[in-house]
Recover the amino acids of this structure.
């Protein structure tokens, strides 16, 4: 009988212990009044922009910066070079059998579009375009679905790529080709790498800029002092006289037009072609500013460089950014400047 009691007791002990554990779990871990503090960690936001402090040769030309400051590019003796600002390693971007005509960083990717000119044995000249992905260190020609490389034939071997405008949202690229004293030609390249010449009003073609969401190219009509858009009958009106200068477009398709004289600007008009209400906004600068010292950010920030003080001012907020040397360009997080052989980044 005692053995049966002991057996029952020993059988009940694990059951009792299990019940005590369940009671503790219920009262402390599953209690309705228990609160948990959670915090979302955005790893992407933790990444800081690279500290830019790179060296370039004395004879470096066409210095530029990628949209996020991860890469610096420059030309030396007609050869394109790219510096990774995270480790300051430089890489030469070679062009086989051709020569560099023009290059431009895409406005929102670490990719360069490179215009290259070739002359074959018969003397015919043409352009080809390569994209260089700096992050992947990969270069490839623009080609169609049949892997046929896209070419633009040139009627004159002296023609060069003068400007490139890119819409990354529509995957459309516009190429301005020309030479001194001749009418420029404008070409459109679609996502399939198919090219066609774009007709524009008979005039001297100035700066070009592509809208991002709309497949539309904006251009300076330097003959009649107008800013126009291909496909639109009337010029883009500002309501004022003086000389109009196309500054840029932003990611929301707003158009920025400078108004002044002799290459200097006093007012900046911000125009939204889609908006019927207040489609024109105006920024009046405190003094005349050379158009080359005005930068339009992809986010719509209007930045003015005061070269006498080495200060860049964001016109809406009034925030100032100090730099050393000569200002080279603007990127998402700040500005870059050249001080002798050094390229220095200054954050906003």
């Amino acid at each position: 009988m005692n053995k049966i009691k002991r057996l029952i007791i020993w059988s009940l002990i694990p059951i009792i212990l299990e019940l005590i554990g369940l009671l503790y779990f219920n009262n402390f871990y599953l209690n309705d009044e228990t609160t948990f503090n959670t915090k979302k960690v955005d790893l992407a936001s933790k990444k800081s922009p690279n500290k830019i402090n790179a060296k370039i040769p004395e004879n470096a030309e066409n210095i530029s910066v990628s949209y996020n400051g991860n890469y610096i590019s420059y030309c030396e003796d007609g050869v394109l070079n790219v510096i990774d600002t995270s480790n300051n390693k430089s890489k030469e971007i070679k062009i086989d059998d051709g020569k560099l005509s023009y290059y431009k960083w895409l406005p929102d990717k670490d990719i360069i579009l490179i215009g290259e000119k070739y002359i074959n044995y018969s003397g015919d000249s043409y352009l080809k375009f390569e994209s260089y992905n700096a992050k992947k260190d990969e270069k490839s020609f623009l080609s169609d679905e049949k892997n046929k490389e896209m070419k633009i034939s040139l009627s004159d071997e002296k023609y060069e790529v003068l400007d490139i405008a890119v819409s990354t949202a529509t995957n459309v690229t516009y190429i301005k080709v020309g030479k001194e004293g001749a009418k420029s030609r404008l070409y459109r390249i679609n996502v399939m790498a198919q090219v066609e010449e774009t007709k524009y009003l008979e005039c001297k073609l100035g700066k070009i800029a592509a809208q991002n969401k709309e497949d539309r190219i904006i251009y300076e009509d330097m003959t009649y002092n107008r800013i126009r858009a291909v496909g639109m009958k009337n010029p883009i009106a500002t309501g004022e006289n003086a000389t109009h200068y196309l500054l840029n477009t932003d990611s929301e398709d707003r158009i920025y037009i400078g108004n002044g004289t002799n290459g200097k600007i006093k007012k900046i008009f911000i125009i939204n072609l889609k908006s019927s209400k207040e489609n024109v906004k105006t920024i009046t600068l405190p003094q005349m500013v050379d158009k080359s010292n005005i930068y339009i950010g992809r986010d719509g920030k209007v930045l003015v460089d005061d070269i006498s003080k080495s200060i860049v001012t964001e016109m809406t907020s009034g925030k100032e950014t100090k730099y050393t040397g000569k200002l080279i360009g603007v990127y998402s997080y700040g500005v870059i400047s050249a001080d002798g052989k050094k390229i220095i980044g200054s954050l906003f």
Q: What stands out?
A: The first helix runs from residue 2 to 28.
